[in-house]
Automatic annotation (TrEMBL):
It comes from the Eukaryota. Residues 204-268 form the Sdz-33 F-box domain. It comes from Caenorhabditis briggsae. Residues 292-344 have a biased composition (Acidic residues). This is Protein CBG20200. Residues 292-346 are annotated as: Disordered.
């Protein structure tokens, strides 16, 4: 009995000593130590490391980034030449480079520990229960994925980003994007699609069924503007250079008649090679121009709204009063006046109102022979 107590005491002392040593080590060294054994992992887990976020980047050589309160640790996996042609996460990396700090200094190179890529992901995501954010970025390219392997390997994600090829379009990329969305769309809150090909098998309608917090389209391919009204995302951002002004004008008219009540904000940025005819953009719309003083007030309201959403009803009454006073003038504003006030390098803002009494702000800017259009729907403009 005495020997058993003595052995337990020695084990506790040894564990206590190990914990004190671990606490004195740098984060990248602690991470590396966790791969020594299951006991080492358990000791590291008991530290409850202050990891703010874990970002998993799936590309030719995958990267896992761990952000701490005041430090960064990232692991890069050298996968070998055939990795992109394999349909699962069961491949073993050739080796793993561990980097430290924001300036990304190579700290140590590890062997693959006999672990497949999915096991590395599971291990690193289990190190701390303090992680507030798990997110993933997929560079689809020529890589292949399958739904079950993705769900088994990855933790519960909040955000995902899918990157396609900017210039090339392939069915393989579209299929990969479908697989990733099928695996994670029911669970994530934010989705970003960059240069992703939208076609018959991957449309806005497929994505729109999810009740997302944020949905971003960056230079989407084959994008149908009419599908915006099927999206349930609270906030939707679209950046593109392929939207004709007539399509934008039709979208604004549809928004006036059939707005989505769930959406809190919508921003469309469109960069064009030629200066557009704003008369086409605003044709048939009842709008009022926002003066500079009003712009500053609206920006202050929008900033305050990010912290709290109080006072929305009062803002709506004030905006309605201003609109009632100026509506007759805005409806009769001549096309010539609009053209005369356009100055290269400057912008203009207009308000339109939908059937629910919500205002949308159209912002147009001209700079160096190109132009941008932004449309923002927010309670700050109500």
């Amino acid at each position: 009995m005495t020997n058993q107590v003595s052995n337990r005491t020695q084990r506790r002392l040894a564990n206590h000593l190990c914990l004190n040593v671990l606490k004195a080590m740098k984060y990248h060294a602690i991470i590396a130590y966790s791969f020594v054994s299951k006991k080492a992992l358990a000791l590291v887990q008991s530290l409850h490391l202050p990891i703010k976020s874990v970002r998993i980047i799936m590309k030719e050589n995958p990267v896992i980034e761990l952000e701490f309160r005041n430090d960064y640790v990232s692991l890069e996996f050298e996968m070998g030449k055939n990795y992109k042609q394999i349909a699962s996460l069961n491949d073993l990396p050739l080796n793993v480079n561990v980097f430290k700090g924001e300036e990304v200094h190579l700290a140590v190179t590890m062997s693959n520990q006999g672990m497949a890529l999915r096991e590395w992901i599971q291990h690193l995501c289990s190190i701390s229960n303090k992680v507030k954010l798990h997110e993933a970025e997929f560079h689809i390219g020529d890589m292949q994925f399958d739904v079950q392997s993705l769900r088994n390997a990855f933790p519960k994600l909040r955000n995902i980003g899918i990157h396609g090829s900017r210039n090339e379009t392939s069915e393989h990329e579209t299929l990969n994007a479908q697989i990733i969305l099928r695996a994670f769309l029911p669970y994530v809150k934010e989705v970003e699609l960059i240069s992703v090909n939208l076609g018959e098998n991957l449309t806005c309608e497929h994505i729109g069924i999810a009740n997302l917090k944020n949905l971003d389209f960056v230079h989407p391919k084959n994008f149908n503007f009419d599908c915006i009204f099927t999206l349930n995302a609270e906030s939707c951002n679209i950046i593109t250079d392929q939207i004709p002004l007539r399509d934008l004008n039709r979208f604004f008219k549809l928004w006036v008649k059939q707005p989505n009540p769930r959406r809190r904000s919508l921003m469309i940025s469109c960069d064009m090679e030629t200066v557009p005819d704003w008369n086409v953009l605003l044709k048939g719309l009842k709008f009022e121009e926002i003066e500079k003083e009003a712009e500053e007030d609206d920006e202050e309201v929008e900033e305050d709204e990010e912290d709290e959403e109080t006072g929305a009803d009062e803002d709506e009454e004030e905006a309605d009063e201003e609109k009632a006073e100026d509506e007759s003038e805005s409806e009769t504003e001549s096309d010539e006046e609009l053209e005369d006030e356009e100055v290269e390098g400057e912008g203009k803002k207009f308000l339109i109102r939908n059937c629910r009494g919500i205002h949308g702000q159209i912002e147009v800017k001209l700079f160096e022979g190109s132009a941008s259009v932004k449309f923002i729907v927010s309670k700050g403009y109500s």
